[in-house]
Amino acid sequence: DAGITQSPRHKVTETGTPVTLRCHQTENHRYMYWYRQDPGHGLRLIHYSYGVKDTDKGEVSDGYSVSRSKTEDFLLTLESATSSQTSVYFCAITTGAYEQYFGPGTRLTVT
Amino acid sequence: AQSVSQHNHHVILSEAASLELGCNYSYGGTVNLFWYVQYPGQHLQLLLKYFSGDPLVKGIKGFEAEFIKSKFSFNLRKPSVQWSDTAEYFCAVRNVNYGGSQGNLIFGKGTKLSVKP
User: Is the pLDDT of residue B102 over 60?
Assistant: First the structure.
């Protein structure tokens, strides 16, 4: 599992509230990613990071922000959650061999 | 835009049947190719990968895939499926020629496999 944990694993929140999801890795990988998974859409990249304080947007970044102040932690923030952001969120890392490994996921429900 | 197509959305097979799931990608540069499996309620796990060399690659749990460059395809196969193979399968492609966001993995929408016991 490449030493990736995500917290929380499940969250229910109300529309308009801020939400922060945390991804933690223990193996010092440089690249980290946030995806969302929705039925019929597969995995879509939200943001990624290529080092401490170095982040960039992915395919579906609107409404999301990220931060990476330490190599091991990559935070995803929904500034004002909307129902369209109800999804399963996966964090991932890429190894030096360009293999991507995923965390266990966070199921977020916005009511 | 780069894209990955998985033409089968849901495949239903009986145990011991042979499996082939299609994957096509849209660009002609050098690529890395991956198949991931997601069992119900779990995260994606790497099944196999192709970077270079022999276009027929073998992965875990008896799966294999063949890279056909001329067809931009990387189909997943298994000679005899088991009930435990019930899962969703995702093809992913990385364009080696680009860095930054264009070098990221692009995923297909997935194929759900149901194996009847």
Answer: no
Confidence of residue A19 (pLDDT cuts 50, 70, 90): very high
DSSP character string of A62-78: TTEEEEEEETTEEEEEE
B44 vs A90: CB contact, 8 Å cut-off? yes
The answer to whether the peptide bond before residue B55 is cis (omega within 30 degrees of 0) is no
SS3 breakdown of chain B: % helix, strand, coil, rounded to 5? 10, 50, 40
Q: Is B83 helix (H, G, I), strand (E, B) or coil?
A: helix
Residue A62's domain is classified under what CATH number? 2.60.40.10
**Which CATH class, in words, describes the domain spanning B4-116?**
mainly beta
pLDDT for A97 equals 78
Among A10, A100, A106, pick the best mutation site for testing chain B contact (most B Cβ within 10 A). A100
User: What is the domain extent for residue A85?
Assistant: 4-110
In A, which residues are within 8 Å of B107 by CB distance?
42-44
Please report the pLDDT score of residue B57 as a whole number. 97
The structural domain count of chain A equals 1
